[in-house]
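Escalation from tier 1.

The customer reports that the assembly of two entities below gives different structure tokens on two consecutive runs. Tier 1 could not reproduce it. I'm attaching the input and our single run for tier 2 to review.
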Amino acid sequence: MKADVIDTLAGIVPGSHLDSVRRARRAVAREQAQKSYDSLFAAGDTGDFGPLERFAVAVFVAGLHGQTAIKDYYAAKLRSAAATDATRATIDAEIAAAATKGPYGAYPKGPLSKEDTQGPIHRVADAHREVLGPRLAAAFEHVHMLVFHPRDAAPPSLQAMLDAGWTTDAVVTLSQLVAFLSFQIRVVAGLRVLAAKS
Amino acid sequence: MTDKTVPQSGHIVPAVFTRDMLDWLPWLEPVAADRMTERQLASLVDAARVKSDYFRLLARDPDVLEARTRTDKDIFYNPDAGLPRAERELAAATTSRLNGCIYCASVHARFAATYSKRVGDVDRLLAEGVGADLDKRWNAIVAASVALTETPISFGPQHIDALRKVGLGDDAIVDVINAASFFNWANRLMLSLGEPTPAAP
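Tier 1 run:
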């Protein structure tokens, strides 16, 4: 039987208390979260958004969350996807340069403007752009916004990805990948805290 | 040929959090309803969703859409034990309020108000934000949802203690974790692939 990735990352072993809560009460959510993972990271047909790019984005997202064990999991997958040492080192450098605290961002002008909070708009360094290439560089800039300040999203950021060679289909998959990871990382972090208190 | 976004213009932009019905306008071209493949139609799970631009856009990747939808439904609709539906919706509304998803907050504030009958408290969450003082139990659920939504995640043992103190068992705490985490998924899609506008009357 294939291992459940959330259980693996959260350290939930078969027969444990939380394993029985997850299986007895929310078996479908558990199974479908795994299916989401499989369709994003273990799909037979990855179209024009290949495994190297998928795992590169996953390492970046987990790194931005400061989740070392989850980042290591995706970093091992990235290595298996034949990423060069230069690519892997560049992603680490991007994480170090881009990590901040969220959520921040602006609202449409009006009563909520008093809640607008400023934060960085990430730009990939020129030297890193050369290593990552235009597609991943555009993706990282968009992904940083999705992770830390999603309410600042607007069409120009999507257009920048399309201009860098992403198709509309691939942008949808990339958006799902980042959004799914935002879920997976939180479930894992939450379950780990709960397991330690059980 | 490079694909193009479909920027929207001329519509009313909601500038406050509300329980009113909103529509959602896509920034990327959804699959046309009459050009959906069998697989794409099946990925909607609910056939009526073929009317929704949001779901027809996500149907560009049907496998992820279907798994996302089935995850969502079990976390929120499964009535077996755990947290009452109203409070799963409270976690969703809180997450949406903090991330700033006016569309998602409108839907789940409506559900939270309907299932809890605590319209005033839900409206205070929308108006004042996640610091609104609701009651001990709701404050604990809101605080846990906030801690799970922040990046880096600030959820810790003190949140488990607070949830247990107001009566949540581990199955209910797993529901809080799932519901807040799931809205960190949903908010990012809704916020980054389109924008809300008031529903046509």
